[in-house]
């Protein structure tokens, strides 16, 4: 047994005694349907990740394994069962694919940068933190800091990737800092320095947390994880990470359908890290501190200039079960599209799928909802 494994075991024992949970192991779920590389690829990842520190629960079809298996027949049933196991506390976190998070929740990826072999947090990689781009990236910074702290980085250095809106994000974050929010900024490796990062900084992992818009973050995740394999097999890194939001408490971590066994294994370990680091309470505390530093006022100053005058107030119809997904709607039009359906008496909710924004409606009203959105110019589908 290696010195690191021995130290991990003793640390786990000490933590268990201190918390009064001696003998209670963390349980990490792994759904096993949906991979482009098959069920075996995911199960192999679970075996690579096996540890004395946690137990792994497979959620999927029956397989020949000594791991615990909760049997399901399809992906829809699989995610229902996953949520049931999470909400009941039977599992502490779950690694899965193709999961729809609500608006306001995005996933925080973890990569190994090629130039220096350094770990770096990518905030964020899937989901939508807010419909306003700048607000979304400011939130991404807080999500990234929360995640970094949960995996043991006490004072994470934050960099903002030089994408559209980076300077506005920098202004907002530095205003939060001036108001008392505890955030440290990284320095670019380039001669002119600063916390706005270049592509070079991505390669070397200049910051602990790289803040970017989600679509760019998603691309970087794919490049970092599969640049040595040709793109169809993600072999490096820890996956797209946990969904983090201001008041979100499900510990769901995302993989790509192209993620290979090594990434699956690392994602399971990542899940253990954020459970033991208590990401839920850390993120709540980060937002509490940010709000004390006038977060809401700063965000309001961004969004009030976009506010429309004389907007008709639309009453929400009675809630219904929504399982029909309508895609092809621009993120900036998402809430207006929902309001248009409400105006027509169709209950709808906004969400984010793997391919972008979605509107969710009841199956029985799916066709009329699509017709309404096409007529109003929100989608061509």
TrEMBL record:
Task: Look up the record and give one Gene Ontology term from the biological process aspect.
Answer: fatty acid biosynthetic process
Which SUPFAM superfamilies does this chain map to?
A: Isocitrate/Isopropylmalate dehydrogenase-like
Q: Which InterPro entries match?
A: FA_synthesis, Gly_reductase_pC_asu
A molecular function annotated in GO for this UniProt entry is:
acyltransferase activity, transferring groups other than amino-acyl groups
Any idea which residues are catalytic in this one?
Answer: 354
In terms of Pfam families, this protein maps to: FA_synthesis
NCBIfam families on file: reduct_C_alpha (NF040747)
Q: What is this protein called?
A: Glycine reductase
From which organism does this entry originate? Romboutsia weinsteinii
Lineage of source species:
Bacteria, Bacillati, Bacillota, Clostridia, Peptostreptococcales
């Amino acid at each position: 047994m290696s010195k690191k494994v021995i130290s991990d075991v003793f640390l786990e024992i000490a933590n268990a005694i201190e918390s009064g949970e001696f003998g209670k192991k963390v349980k990490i779920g792994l759904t096993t349907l949906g991979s482009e590389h098959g069920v075996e690829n995911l199960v192999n990842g679970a075996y690579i990740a096996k540890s004395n520190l946690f137990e792994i629960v497979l959620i999927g079809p029956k397989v020949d394994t000594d791991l615990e298996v909760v049997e399901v027949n399809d992906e829809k049933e699989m995610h229902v069962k996953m949520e049931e196991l999470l909400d009941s506390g039977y599992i502490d976190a779950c690694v899965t694919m193709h999961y729809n998070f609500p608006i306001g929740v995005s996933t925080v990826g973890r990569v190994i940068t090629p130039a220096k072999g350094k770990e770096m947090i990518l905030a964020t990689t899937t989901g939508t933190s807010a419909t306003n781009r700048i607000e979304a990236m400011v939130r991404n910074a807080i999500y990234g800091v929360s995640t970094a702290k949960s995996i043991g980085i006490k004072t994470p250095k934050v960099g903002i990737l030089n994408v559209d809106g980076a300077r506005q994000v920098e202004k907002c974050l530095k205003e939060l800092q001036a108001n008392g929010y505890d955030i440290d900024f990284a320095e670019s490796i380039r001669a002119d320095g600063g916390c706005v990062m270049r592509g070079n900084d991505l390669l070397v992992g200049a910051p602990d947390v790289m803040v970017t818009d989600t679509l760019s973050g998603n691309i970087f995740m794919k490049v970092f994880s599969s640049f040595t394999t040709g793109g169809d097999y993600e072999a490096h890194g820890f996956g797209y990470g946990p969904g983090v939001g201001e008041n979100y408490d499900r510990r769901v971590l995302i993989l790509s359908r192209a993620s290979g066994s090594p990434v699956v294994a690392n994602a399971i370990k990542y899940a253990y890290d954020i459970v033991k680091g208590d990401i839920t309470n850390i993120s709540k505390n980060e937002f509490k501190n940010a709000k004390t530093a006038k977060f809401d006022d700063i965000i309001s100053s961004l969004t009030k200039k976009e506010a429309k005058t004389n907007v008709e107030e639309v009453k929400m119809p009675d809630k219904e079960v929504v399982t029909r997904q309508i895609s092809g709607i621009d993120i900036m039009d998402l809430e207006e599209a929902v309001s248009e359906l409400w105006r027509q008496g169709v209950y709808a909710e906004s969400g984010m799928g793997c391919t972008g924004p979605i509107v969710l409606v009841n199956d029985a009203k799916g066709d009329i909802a699509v017709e309404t959105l096409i007529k109003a110019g929100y989608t061509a589908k």
